[in-house]
């Protein structure tokens, strides 16, 4: 039995995240180096999907909305409600920004679930790039609207005087940790989910070809994989929603200072 | 030497399941309490509980997955 | 020798997932309890629960990321 | 030999994240329970929860910082 199990991992389950180069142009002569890698390709695909969806729902400006434009309008409306409840009136200026983030992160999560595909959002460069850019933008916005009063953000209302220095130190650390935790949350969920799927599918595959008795036993991990893929789709939606929700609450901190 | 480290590592990783155990117990305790308080929406409560159970189970399986990863590669 | 230390370190780091399991169980227990108490605002409660779940899961997965970091670098 | 001790030390330090996971779960459980009990002051409750979350997360990240400190210096 043990010999059968330890041939389960032919190759490393983390191999699915490796970046492979498709073609490579330019060299020392040209100076400019251009190489299309699989993460680059999938980012382009996701962009085309997002633009295509918006174009489809444009419905060449007919008054009667087509099904696609209803989808987009309801998505737009739900994000508008979320912004209204988080930031209030002034936040509506950031609606297109948050809508694009939500759609982009959602599609890059979902595209990873297509078999034989690659998840752009399972790379730290995608997640942390997004979150650091957002945090720098929010801080600049905060300073622009509130100049020096922005530091009031680090002192929550009603703290006794003696506690202020400790609290300011902790608040600044947690404010700076937001840059990492926002992106790391998205990426870690995607990596963890896909590695788990990879391990269980290899395990089931070994069980299926392992012989008649094992074929019967392999129904259980197979059912688990179906359940977990459903969970993975739910997690893709939840992560995209939470990413947008937290960006909105950080914007709220910058605009309304608590 | 390496094989012994793999076994110890897998053993340590499985401790992570303790949390999922406590979590699932708490979710079902809440189901029992809330069904007593408001039996009319039993179905809705049960669906939330199953969702909570599935998500807590997922965390436990992350730890189990890590244990398998350590044991076999 | 170093490789075996990496495996044991990764095994130890995975224990951090226990906390996330307990946390998610508590959040969903609160959802079930509060839906029984006040079913009219189910939607709002559910959105807070999903937010709480995602934030707790993030901490658990930080520990898992740390385990992967120890294992592979 | 020293490097392997560093790795095991970092693995041990990451276990501290378990507490932060439990804490954040409790904070959001309280939010869900209290919103059901008194939905009118949702905004105030939510801002307290975010503050509590930020402070609990800071403690968890202290543990992670300690783990990195052990690992790389």
From TrEMBL, chain A:
<feature type="transmembrane region" description="Helical">
    <location>
        <begin position="207"/>
        <end position="227"/>
    </location>
</feature>
<keyword id="KW-0375">Hydrogen ion transport</keyword>
<keyword id="KW-0472">Membrane</keyword>
<dbReference type="InterPro" id="IPR000568">
    <property type="entry name" value="ATP_synth_F0_asu"/>
</dbReference>
<dbReference type="GO" id="GO:0045259">
    <property type="term" value="C:proton-transporting ATP synthase complex"/>
</dbReference>
<comment type="similarity">
    <text>Belongs to the ATPase A chain family.</text>
</comment>
<dbReference type="InterPro" id="IPR035908">
    <property type="entry name" value="F0_ATP_A_sf"/>
</dbReference>
<feature type="transmembrane region" description="Helical">
    <location>
        <begin position="150"/>
        <end position="170"/>
    </location>
</feature>
<dbReference type="InterPro" id="IPR045083">
    <property type="entry name" value="ATP_synth_F0_asu_bact/mt"/>
</dbReference>
<feature type="transmembrane region" description="Helical">
    <location>
        <begin position="124"/>
        <end position="143"/>
    </location>
</feature>
<keyword id="KW-0496">Mitochondrion</keyword>
<protein>
    <recommendedName>
        <fullName>ATP synthase subunit a</fullName>
    </recommendedName>
</protein>
<keyword id="KW-0138">CF(0)</keyword>
<keyword id="KW-1133">Transmembrane helix</keyword>
<feature type="transmembrane region" description="Helical">
    <location>
        <begin position="93"/>
        <end position="118"/>
    </location>
</feature>
<dbReference type="GO" id="GO:0005743">
    <property type="term" value="C:mitochondrial inner membrane"/>
</dbReference>
<feature type="transmembrane region" description="Helical">
    <location>
        <begin position="233"/>
        <end position="251"/>
    </location>
</feature>
<dbReference type="GO" id="GO:0046933">
    <property type="term" value="F:proton-transporting ATP synthase activity, rotational mechanism"/>
</dbReference>
<feature type="transmembrane region" description="Helical">
    <location>
        <begin position="39"/>
        <end position="58"/>
    </location>
</feature>
<keyword id="KW-0812">Transmembrane</keyword>
<feature type="transmembrane region" description="Helical">
    <location>
        <begin position="182"/>
        <end position="200"/>
    </location>
</feature>
<dbReference type="InterPro" id="IPR023011">
    <property type="entry name" value="ATP_synth_F0_asu_AS"/>
</dbReference>
TrEMBL record, chains B, C, D:
<comment type="subunit">
    <text>F-type ATPases have 2 components, CF(1) - the catalytic core - and CF(0) - the membrane proton channel. CF(1) has five subunits: alpha(3), beta(3), gamma(1), delta(1), epsilon(1). CF(0) has three main subunits: a, b and c.</text>
</comment>
<keyword id="KW-0375">Hydrogen ion transport</keyword>
<comment type="similarity">
    <text>Belongs to the ATPase C chain family.</text>
</comment>
<keyword id="KW-0496">Mitochondrion</keyword>
<keyword id="KW-0446">Lipid-binding</keyword>
<keyword id="KW-0472">Membrane</keyword>
<feature type="domain" description="V-ATPase proteolipid subunit C-like">
    <location>
        <begin position="8"/>
        <end position="70"/>
    </location>
</feature>
<dbReference type="InterPro" id="IPR002379">
    <property type="entry name" value="ATPase_proteolipid_c-like_dom"/>
</dbReference>
<dbReference type="Pfam" id="PF00137">
    <property type="entry name" value="ATP-synt_C"/>
</dbReference>
<dbReference type="GO" id="GO:0033177">
    <property type="term" value="C:proton-transporting two-sector ATPase complex, proton-transporting domain"/>
</dbReference>
<dbReference type="InterPro" id="IPR020537">
    <property type="entry name" value="ATP_synth_F0_csu_DDCD_BS"/>
</dbReference>
<keyword id="KW-0406">Ion transport</keyword>
<feature type="transmembrane region" description="Helical">
    <location>
        <begin position="45"/>
        <end position="72"/>
    </location>
</feature>
<dbReference type="InterPro" id="IPR038662">
    <property type="entry name" value="ATP_synth_F0_csu_sf"/>
</dbReference>
<protein>
    <recommendedName>
        <fullName>ATP synthase subunit 9, mitochondrial</fullName>
    </recommendedName>
</protein>
<keyword id="KW-0812">Transmembrane</keyword>
<dbReference type="GO" id="GO:0031966">
    <property type="term" value="C:mitochondrial membrane"/>
</dbReference>
<dbReference type="InterPro" id="IPR035921">
    <property type="entry name" value="F/V-ATP_Csub_sf"/>
</dbReference>
<dbReference type="GO" id="GO:0045259">
    <property type="term" value="C:proton-transporting ATP synthase complex"/>
</dbReference>
<keyword id="KW-1133">Transmembrane helix</keyword>
<dbReference type="InterPro" id="IPR000454">
    <property type="entry name" value="ATP_synth_F0_csu"/>
</dbReference>
<keyword id="KW-0138">CF(0)</keyword>
């Amino acid at each position: 039995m043990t010999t059968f199990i330890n041939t389960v991992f032919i190759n490393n389950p983390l191999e699915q995240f490796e970046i492979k180069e498709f073609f490579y142009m330019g060299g020392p002569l040209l100076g400019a180096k251009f190489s299309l890698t699989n993460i680059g390709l999938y980012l382009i695909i996701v962009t085309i999907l997002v633009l295509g969806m918006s174009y489809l729902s444009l419905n060449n400006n007919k008054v009667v909305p087509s099904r696609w434009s209803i989808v987009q309008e309801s998505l737009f409306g739900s994000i508008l409600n979320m912004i209204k409840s988080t930031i209030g009136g002034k936040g509506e200026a950031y609606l297109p920004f948050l809508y694009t983030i939500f759609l982009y992160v959602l599609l890059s999560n979902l595209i990873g679930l297509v078999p034989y595909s690659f998840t752009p959002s399972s790379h730290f460069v995608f997640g942390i790039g997004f979150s650091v850019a957002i945090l720098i933008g929010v801080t600049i916005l905060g300073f622009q609207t509130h100049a020096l009063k922005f530091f009031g953000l680090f002192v929550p209302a009603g703290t006794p005087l003696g506690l202020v220095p400790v609290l300011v130190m902790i608040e600044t650390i947690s404010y700076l940790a937001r840059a990492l935790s926002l992106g790391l949350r998205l990426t870690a969920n995607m990596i963890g989910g896909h590695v788990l799927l990879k391990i269980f599918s290899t395990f089931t595959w070994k069980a299926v070809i392992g012989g008649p008795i094992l074929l019967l036993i392999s129904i259980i991990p197979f059912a688990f994989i179906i359940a977990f893929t459903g969970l993975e789709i739910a997690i893709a939606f939840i992560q995209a929603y939470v990413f947008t929700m937290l960006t909105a609450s950080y914007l709220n901190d910058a605009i309304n200072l608590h | 030497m390496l094989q012994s480290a793999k076994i110890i590592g897998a053993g340590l990783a499985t401790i992570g399941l303790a949390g999922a155990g406590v979590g699932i117990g708490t979710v079902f305790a809440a189901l029992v309490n809330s069904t007593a308080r408001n039996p009319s929406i039993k179905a809705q409560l049960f669906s939330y509980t199953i969702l909570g159970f599935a998500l807590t189970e997922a965390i436990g399986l992350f730890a189990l997955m890590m244990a398998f990863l350590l044991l076999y590669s």
